[in-house]
Amino acid sequence: MKLRAWGLFLFAVLHTAFPGSLATSQSTTSSPATSAQSGGDGVKLNVDLVVLDAQVVQRKTARIVGNLKREDFLLREDGALQQITQFGQDTLPLSVILLVDRGGCLDPFSDKVRQATLDAIYRLKRTDEVALMAFADTADLIKGFRFDRGMIADALNRLPPHDENAGHCFNRAFYEAAKFMREAGNPAGRRVIIMITGITKSFDCNPGPSSEETRNEVLEAGAVVCGLVPITPEQRLENGVIGGAATVAGIFKAHTSSLGQLAEETGGEIFSAKPADLDAAFSNLIDHLRNRYTIGFVSSNTKRDGTYRKVKLEVSPAIQKREGEVVVKTRRGYKAAKAAKT
After folding, report:
1. C-alpha 288: how far from its chain's center?
2. Of 291, 278, 229, which is closest to residue 119 (Cα–Cα)?
3. pTM of this prediction?
4. Does the N terminus or the C terminus of the chain have fewer Cβ atoms within 10 A?
């Protein structure tokens, strides 16, 4: 295991020094997800309406702050105050893509993790839909969106075997998942990509989408990115080696992807726990998804120029005084609708 880990570190160093020559060894086999048709866009539900998915927690205790009202929030876009036109909590169905890592030294999807995943999907509401994807060097659709939990449970038994010689192609995985999210049957629902993996950073696989292209696809899909990381001593070693190598490589402008960055930018969370405790972690994740606010607004900037616009959502001073210091987790921005060419 240690030799394998140090081998990964050596690969990372070589990848940094000779990115072009090593990148060509990555597979470019297309996956079923690449056939996803363009459809509804989660951040532009009716062209002009922008929908944010937000969670409010106390900073010190991480306690969820519920029962807030529309007037308890302040919303700004590029610094300009916006009017909140739609507001709700736990009123939208979930569209969930489970994205399971099958590459690298360790298999994060042990029997205990599989059971925790099964228990979690059966706790979802009847109106929630789930899809299953697996990734390593490629990202492959195992089962499309289904409301039938039994079909997803059966698909979990048909995941590809773990391949320790394969990579962790985060860029391909998130890009394809976000692209397939457009197939969701709940067009106005809450969209969530849950990655189950043992690492939190990876080198981008080439040829493939860049980190920026992947980020844009996730933002345009209106998806919240979350992570579940089963913790073991071996996992800590692999994550430390790859994460450290990716950080160093980033100094030399090597292309990398970060689960943490995508989760933070989309208002998601990463839950880490020992495999035996992952059931509780998965349960907490579902509870947190349930206790989120849906906030919609029509931008005062009426230009349809396809630009990225920064969003800042805060609670009012009165709520800060009542609840203490709180954190609002939501996406940092969105891409505006682009006018059709005439």
Report:
1. 14
2. 278
3. 0.75
4. C
Determine the structural domain holding residue 190 and report its residue range. Answer: 2-21+92-290
- Listed as ranges, residues in the chain with pLDDT below 70 are 1-47, 90-91, 187-188, 239-254, 342
Q: For residue 235, what are the contacts with CB-CB under 8 A and spacing of at least 6?
A: 106, 108, 198, 199, 229
Domain assignment present for 32: no
- 175, 318: one domain: no
Q: Quote the crossing angle between the two packed helices 111-122 and 149-156, to the nearest 10°.
A: 170
Residue 148, CA distances (Å) to 7, 59, 105, 126 in order = 43, 37, 33, 8
Pairing of the two strands 223-230 and 190-196: parallel
Predicted pLDDT at 63 = 83
Average predicted confidence (pLDDT) for the chain: 81
195 Cβ contact partners less than 8 Å away, ≥ 6 residues apart: 99, 100, 101, 173, 174, 225, 226, 227, 228, 259
The CB-side HSE value for 236 (13 A sphere, CA atoms) comes to 6
Of 30, 32, 19, 33, give the one whose Cα is nearest residue 205. Answer: 19
Q: Dihedral of CA 212/217/223/226: which sign?
A: negative
Domain count, the chain: 2
**Tens of pLDDT along 130-170?**
999 999 999 999 999 999 999 999 999 999 999 989 988 99
- Same domain, residue pair 282 and 199: yes
Q: In Å, what is the CA distance from 192 to each residue of 3, 41, 178, 203, 268?
A: 36, 14, 9, 23, 9
Token pair of 274 as six digits:
């020992």
